Amino acid sequence: MKSRYTSISLLIVLAASYAFAGSAANTSFEQLKSLDGSWEGKGSNGEPVQVSYKVTSNGSALMSEIKGKEDMISMFNLDGDRLLMTHYCAVGNQPRMVASPSPDGKTITFHFLDVTNLATPEAGHMNRLVISLAEANHHTEEWVYNDHGKEMKEVFDLWRKK
Q1: Quick one: what percent of the chain has pLDDT higher than 90?
Q2: Fewer CB within 10 Å, N- or C-terminus of the chain?
Q3: Which of 40, 87, 102, 46 is nearest to 67 (CA)?
Q4: What are the φ and ψ backbone dihedral angles of 43, each rounded to 5 degrees?
């Protein structure tokens, strides 16, 4: 009888964990969808940058477009109990990353999952994205690029266009 209660308790804990993971992904996705619109700001080097976000596909996807020297697209979508991002990079590959929200819900970090069209395992590709949601009209994006073991960061400080 004791083992039966232990099994039931374990199932309840596992189900709750699964539900929490799914709700965390949903919450993060809804937060990202609130970025819908046009943003402008500066990159790490002080150069101007423009980013637009568009909710698309009946709310099931979010498209981000970075406009600048090299235009790039990223797509965000839910995949079961996780939030994914696919980055269509100017270097011609497509890294996918999976999100993990911060406990306070103000930062969403995307960690490398896999990549398509990569010439060699050491070839340059985006490895991490950290989106910090400071307030409704201000956020930052920290993009981390890895090339032959060398990590490079670019930070965009963005404000909603009026």
Answers
A1: 79
A2: N
A3: 40
A4: -90, -175
Supply 101's token pair: 């929200």
Is residue 129 within 8 Å of 97, Cβ to Cβ? yes
In 3D space, the residue among 64, 69, 61, 131 whose CA is nearest the CA of residue 102 turns out to be 131
Extract the tokens encoding 44: 């790490």
Decide: 110 and 98 in contact? Cβ < 8 Å. yes
Q: What is the pLDDT of residues 2-25, one digit of tens each?
A: 555 444 443 343 333 344 445 899
What pLDDT digit, counting tens, does each position of 33-82 carry?
999 999 999 999 999 999 999 999 999 999 999 998 789 999 999 999 99
The DSSP code sequence of 1-68 is -HHHHHHHHHHHHHHHHHHHHHHHHHHHHHHHHTT-EEEEEE-TTS-EEEEEEEEEGGGTEEEEEEES
3-state secondary structure of 143: strand
Instruction: Give this prediction's pTM.
Output: 0.84
Separation CA 61–CA 51 (nearest Å):
16
Strand partners, 24: none
Contact in structure between 95 and 87 (CB atoms under 8 Å): yes
Q: In terms of C-beta density within 10 A (0-12 exposed, 13-18 middle, 19 or more buried), how is residue 85 classed?
A: buried
